[in-house]
Amino acid sequence: MKAIFFRCTFLFSLSVFLIGCNTETKKISENDIQFDSLLVEKTVHFFDIDTNPRCSLQINFVYPVYFSNEDVLKQIQQQFIFDFFGDLCADLTPEEAVVKYTDNFIITYKELEKDFKIELENHDMDIEEMWYVQEESATDKILFNCNDLLSFTVSKEYYYGGAHDGHSYINRVIDLKTGRRITEDVIFIDDYFDDLTKVIVDAIALSNNVETDELENIGFFNLDEIHPNNNFYADETGITYTFNEYEIAAYVIGAVSVQIPYEKIRHLLRIESPVSNLAFR
């Protein structure tokens, strides 16, 4: 928690310095919101025998616990819970959500015990036990917490048996004036899609040191599949998009994140949007 507050304090100090050098620079100020976290570390073996395959769950759930507007706070908490735990826990409190998600993870895993027992009886000890191992590690992180904007990301690493593990990332931006999630249609002008698509594709090519038409040669799918996906966060420098594994490229490429500076997209932003006081500084 200290790291979260420290980051915004640093940004506030930086903004004061910039204001002293340039009177046209708008102030970046910390939001008056506080956070807490809930931790889980749980490992369960089939039939509670340590030598049998296991499931392992690690959770580090950071969520808001104080904001001056209690109605907005409730909306923000629900957004955090939904993005971290999904529909299963959407209407629960943070504490209830952690318990239910953990219990459901274990119950779902224990349903595989019968299959494991049958295979064990049919093949003696000559079975691929790793196919029955399941591991999940989930955490969320506050990325920006200033100027009435709250950006965070939910990161998950998981292995549910099979050839390799997986990773997923959910980015969100919340308008603290309303408690609502900020989506593309809120911050971009009408007919933004094609122009923003080109900006994103060009930025991905640049970050990989290739020309746009060379992306498919290095593992990306058809370029028509790369387009704005609402999986972004905003901070003081721009908007960052993330495309998860297999979304636009082969697994070997991994998740792709690309930062778009505001100067590249100012012509596509609504003047009155929640990010305007950052984009038009």
Structure description:
- With 281 residues, the chain is α+β, with helices and mostly antiparallel strands.
- The protein is built from eight helices and nine strands.
- The protein has helices at residues 2-21, 70-85, 94-110, 113-123, 184-187, 193-207, 262-265, 276-279; strands spanning 33-45, 54-67, 134-146, 149-159, 166-175, 180-181, 232-234, 238-243, 256-261.
- It has a six-stranded mixed beta sheet, with helices on both faces. The protein has a three-stranded antiparallel beta sheet with strand order 7-8-9.
- Strand 3 and strand 4 (149-159) form a beta hairpin.
- The longest helix is centred in the N-terminal third of the chain and has 20 residues, at 2-21.
Layout of SSEs?
Elements: H1 2-21, E1 33-45, E2 54-67, H2 70-85, H3 94-110, H4 113-123, E3 134-146, E4 149-159, E5 166-175, E6 180-181, H5 184-187, H6 193-207, E7 232-234, E8 238-243, E9 256-261, H7 262-265, H8 276-279
Parallel strand pairs: 2-3
Antiparallel strand pairs: 1-2, 3-4, 4-5, 5-6, 7-8, 8-9
Helix pairs in contact: 2-3
Q: Beta fraction of the residues?
A: 25-35%
Q: Quick one: overall form? A: flat
Number of strands: 9
CATH class of the largest domain equals: Alpha Beta
Radius of gyration: 22 Å
Assigned CATH architecture of the largest domain:
2-Layer Sandwich
The multimeric state of the shown protein is single chain
Termini separation comes to 29 Å
Classification by helices and strands: alpha+beta
Compute the number of structural domains: 2
Largest sheet: 6 strands, mixed
- Identify low-pLDDT runs: 1-24
Mean pLDDT: 89
| Percent helix | 25-40%
Q: Can you count the helices?
A: 8
What is the assigned CATH homologous superfamily of the largest domain? Fervidobacterium nodosum Rt17-B1 like
User: Any idea of the CATH topology of the largest domain?
Assistant: Heat Shock Protein 90
Q: Helices and strands, in N-to-C order?
A: HEEHHHEEEEHHEEEHH
